[in-house]
Amino acid sequence: xxxxxxxxxxxxxxxxxxxxxxxxxxxxxxxxxxxxxxxxxxxxxxxxxxxxxxxxxxxxxxxxxxxxxxxxxxxxxxxxxxxxxxxxxxxxxxxxxxxxxxxxxxxxxxxxxxxxxxxxxxxxxxxxxxxxxxxxxxxxxxxxxxxxxxxxxxxxxxxxxxxxxxxxxxxxxxxxxxxxxxxxxxxxxxxxxxxxxxxxxxxxxxxxxxxxxxxxxxxxxxxxxxxxxxxxxxxxxxxxxxxxxxxxxxxxxxxxxxxxxxxxxxxxxxxxxxxxxxxxxxxxxxxxxxxxxxxxxxxxxxxxxxxxxxxxxxxxxxxxxxxxxxxxxxxxxxxxxxxxxxxxxxxxxxxxxxxxxxxxxxxxxxxxxxxxxxxxxxxxxxxxxxxxxxxxxxxxxxxxxxxxxxxxxxxxxxxxxxxxxxxxxxxxxxxxxxxxxxxxxxxxxxxxxxxxxxxxxxxxxxxxxxxxxxxxxxxxxxxxxxxxxxxxxxxxxxxxxxxxxxxxxxxxxxxxxxxxxxxxxxxxxxxxxxxxxxxxxxxxxxxxxxxxxxxxxxxxxxxxxxxxxxxxxxxxxxxxxxxxxxxxxxxxxxxxxxxxxxxxxxxxxxxxxxxxxxxxxxxxxxxxxxxxxxxxxxxxxxxxxxxxxxxxxxxxxxxxxxxxxxxxxxxxxxxxxxxxxxxxxxxxxxxxxxxxxxxxxxxxxxxxxxxxxxxxxxxxxxxxxxxxxxxxxxxxxxxx
Length: 736
What we know:
single chain; Calcium-transporting ATPase, cytoplasmic transduction domain A; 7-stranded mixed β-sheet; 26 strands; Alpha-Beta Plaits
């Protein structure tokens, strides 16, 4: 199975995106397709044994749209000078058209040459010529409407196209009758309706595109973090290249005031780098030889040379952009409801318009009144605002999350996070910094402490657990050399085993003693270590415990405040850890967590999550992604506290790239406001259609309330602008 994101041209409303999505999902070989109206792209999972990209692009064409190739970057449409000039020209033409067609109705001075009462044919010709100009201007609308009707995916353009063509053809008939001498048809021409509808649709599209670009701004900023060019060093000679020309292993140069071009490792020099866009740390970080650098970081004050390691799509920032784009291409449950409604809406409107047209004729209304009502219904009911209601809010919120160091992998999380009533936290690396250090040693062997630690550090050097790093840091500080380890084995949730020389050495928690049937004769010493908040490492040789080593950690700076906020919001907090009970209870009491589940294996963590869900709790699991994968996968929302450079390896629903637990509160807040915003958008979109369609049909004419196609097109634009402005409010969301 492969996945590709294609840029799509020609989508104008939700009926377009829904129609394309349905069409793609029907095709053999396509596993799943999601089409994003706001981002103008389609995320497609397909069987590469059955399909090629060319074939998929052919499907897009068959559905009435155009593929612009693989989606590579977030593009905002620069409004060209010619486009603005066109809009100005047609604004002037629209004023002239309205003056000619309606000036006489409000007693404005009328040019005799186009006076409808004295020169009806000239009047009709003038309107015809101006309307033809507008139809050329709106050719893309008419063309798309026709194509989508042919492909059985009628959309907004279809409604507008049918209405405009109907008005135009009827007006041509009226003009023919004027030529034949029936001058009463002069007052029954609807050329201006066809022209002005196109004009207002064009204005609406122009405003929509500007608003969509602003919607994508937060995500677009991520792309501009990295520089466009960099300087590499080849055989001592500096050469400026584009980022695409940098290869793995190249030596890249960064001078003060320049941005880091790719992820890499410093091989020469020293500098302070601003990595706040990833870490959230406002102060510049000192970097020297051996330290990693992240693409997009700003070099404040030093000259460094670094070896390129992760380039192009592999870089941290590219991974972030990719995740955000993919998330915006998933659909929240509420969006699927809106899409379903939109899918049935356009055909229903066409049917309503036809039935109304027939009823008008049957009841004796004149043909011109019937055709005007038919066109008005089609134009006023265009579902543009309905189609924008959900995706606009989702894209704004995705960008807001990304700017706050929260990577949401599926947009449904933005709907569901506000339901959370239970949050389960892993301890080490989540509630604590995970920067463990050796605090105390009880040595029961005949070895010196340094010899004992050399043994354990050599074994731990093969592990990726934070505890292993504590021993490695100690060995590095004390300049202790590593011994050769053979037959190494990592026993998840227990510890590690390996042979050093002829001896098998075991290091782990209390569960490893049970597994290897080792008797603990040092319970009092164990209690002493645990009471001080240490995690206890048991070191075993043969069947004897040769040492207890206390390793402790530092609780994250703002954890107590965060737990307090969650508790006040009636969200239950639970600590779930493989550590011993005494250590876990001590830290939990310190930060305000009352429920502690300790001494659990990774698989048992997953079982705990399942039990909580069986109690009808909506559970978020927050872990460091190392031993917590089963629990993260089984929770309603899995949140990984991780470093930016490990993004690609993480499998949770949400990644906190700044390692800041306050982001959980921000996520829940964004979720609540996003869902509220979507509901508001959907209300206004449905309210608009529920209000305007009956008026367009003419049900309120007895009360003196009616509209024509021109007013209908203005109302449609106002409806879309209302939804756009409401969704845009999310960009101004403030956090305490």
